[in-house]
Amino acid sequence: MDAILRFIWRSILTFLFLLCAPAILLIVPLLVVHYFPGDDTIGLLKVLLGVFGPFAASFWFLLSSEFPKFYAAARDGGHVNGGIGFHLKAIGKMVFAFLMSGALAFYVGAPRFHVASADSDSLWFVEMYFAVFSPIFLLLAWRLLKRACAGRQTCRWCRETVGSANLDYVGLCSPCHDAALEEKEIDEEQEAWIHKVKYELHDKAWASDLRRGRREALKWKRRVLSSLT
Which residue segment(s) compose the domain that 222 sits in? Predict the structure, then answer.
């Protein structure tokens, strides 16, 4: 039992470290360099950044890659297929990010590992940080570039790709535009139906989805009306 508890505790600590690593691996070294220039701890922090940085980079690369997929599934009420193919792709992404991060970290950090001044140490940590987490930065830059090049092609409400010519001023397709304008601020019939689903049919999840859909419709209705004035 003690071994199991130790394993769980270490797993929790490892997860928390990986989750906070992008902040820890940048802020802590810069603070040490600023307040304790020339201290032996700086060399240890350089080694820790080079050793643990690629692990944190692979973890965050996987999160950055998969989060949009899970977010879209949760938003649309769907699910993500977690089969063997999904897990193999996830492992492949982590291995790719680890190798890329480690290679760039070695290329950037090794030649100037032994530096003398505090300014050089600070610059080394900043350059090393960007090298270690370069897979995440490149992934985010690629997404921004794709979005900028594609322009507005999808409806901002239903997320269907309809083309920019079929979107209104706020980015809604025609069905969503009409549905938003038809939504009533006070709809007793709709509220009664939500109440029935929640308390008579005892389906709180469905009632929550209906309530959320009504709020979304009213939000887009106000935006559409504001764009017309």
Answer: 164-228
